[in-house]
Structures are given as structure tokens and as C-alpha cells.
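Curious: can you check?
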Amino acid sequence: MIVCIGAFDGYHRGHFALFDRARSLSRELNTDWTLVTFEPHPRFVLGGLKARLFSQEEKSFLRSCLGVPEPIEIPFTRVFADTEPQIFLDELRKRVPLDGIVVGSDFRFGRGRTGDGAFLRRYGAKFGLKVELVPQLEEGGSPVSSTRVRSCIEKGDLEQASCLLGYPFFIRSRVVHGQQRGRTFGFPTANLNPGEYKLIPAEGVYAGSAWADGQWYAAAVSVGRNPTFGDGLDLRLEVHVLEFSGGLYGHKLLLALFRRLRPMERFANADALAKQLQADCAQAQECFTISSPLLEIFRQNGQDQRK
């Protein structure tokens, strides 16, 4: 068995390089490959992480799109964080018939983060394991990393996030009832509740795409607190699916986000807001036409995402 070891808060282009090398190595050695990861994410336990790029369910969906095997998940605790690197690998070898290890060149693990590339090479030589250290992928002179992706999303830079991920940032969430105000002036919305630990983009209006009834539709997405109507402090994620007339309540909606169109604004009245929403929808449709090739990675899955 070849294993890729990492925290994997979602999967980005840097991880794709790890997966490609693991697949190649598994063919060379005529064996299988999989991921070894940690749950919850180590930075949730040790501090510094409040929201994740993708939920467990979303990552499972991504793996099916990418052809990545079901991972071996190691429960992560503060006690486990203090495990010596050799003990961790010894236990892993007892659990799976280990033939090789693939990690990023910057990967560190174990007590004091002493499990580095040099340690892995020594361990591999001792036990006859192939060890591959894959160089970090760079984009624009900086490494591609989950931290960098999170920063882009928090700023609303969904175009750069897509570039780093290799696909659009997405949310897969059940549609819940809202105040149904949008339908009164021609813009019905599906309200999403992704959960408190899902990373949500900066407030604003976004162009995106929603999967409904077996196809992709252009979507205009509002992330904010409805300042025009003074609704208060609760952040809301509302999706107007263009040219779609079916029912979505109770279904899980797959929503891909392409680009931030504008910041959240307060309008004088509903008529002024409706006029702006017409312009937003026109921009969203144009962006969908240009950006829809980015959805190809999801089409490979072939599932009805409303289930």
C-alpha cells in the first residue's frame, strides 16, 4: 500500500501532484494507494483554525470527482500530537501493509514536528519503504496551500481561489426556509445553512452556478446581512438560480462560486434593490458562460447532487 499523509483540508492543485505520484508509485509496485489523514483537523485541536474549506461530506464528494480512495482517518488529539514520529509510523505499518509513503516536501509530523523528509527517508531505508517527497507547487511565486486558499476566500477573491484549487470553491448545503422576501419582487432565493465550521466568503454578491434537476444553472449569490431591510446581524447565504422554476426546499444544493461582483450595499428601497439585482443577474449569466468549463471536474462525478 502507498499512502499520502497529510491534514488535507480539502484538496488543491498541490495535493493533485501528491495523488499523481502515489498513483504512479502504486502502479510501479503493483499495489493500491490511499490517503492517511487526521480528524479533526490538527489546527482545530492545536489552535489557529476556526472554519474549514470543506466539510467531511464535501470532501467525500470531491474524492469521488477526483478518483481518490477513501482515506484512513487517524483521530487527532493533543495527546496524539505528542506522539514520536517513529511510533506513529510503526503503528501505521501494523494497520496497513505499507510499501511506500508520499508527502509534500514541507510536511512535518509528530512530537515537535520532528518527523520531516530526512526522518522519513531514514525510516524508509530501514524498513524497505519507498519514500517520495513532492516539491511544493507554486503559483505566482508563492506556494499553493490551504492557508492561501482560505485567505483568498476570506477576502472574496474567488477567482484566485479557483486557480489554486483547480476548481471553483463550492458549498454543498441543504436548502432551508428564509423570509421569502425575494420572490415578492421577482428574485426568489434558496437559503443555505452550511454550518458554523464551513468557511464562508467575504460579504458581497457573487456570480456562481447551482446544480439542480440534473444540470448547471447560472446563479447570483448574496452573502450578507440584508442591510436594505435592516434584518440584523445574522449572516445569510441566499442563491437566486437563474432560469430555474422548480422547488428546492429540503434538497441539498451544490453551489460553485466564480467571482465577487460587488460588495454588500444598502439601497433606498426595494425598487432600487430590484434594479441592481437585475444587473447582478446579467453579470452572473455572463460569468457563468465564461466560467462553466471550470465545472468539468464536478461533471465527472455523475451524481444527482440534490439527493
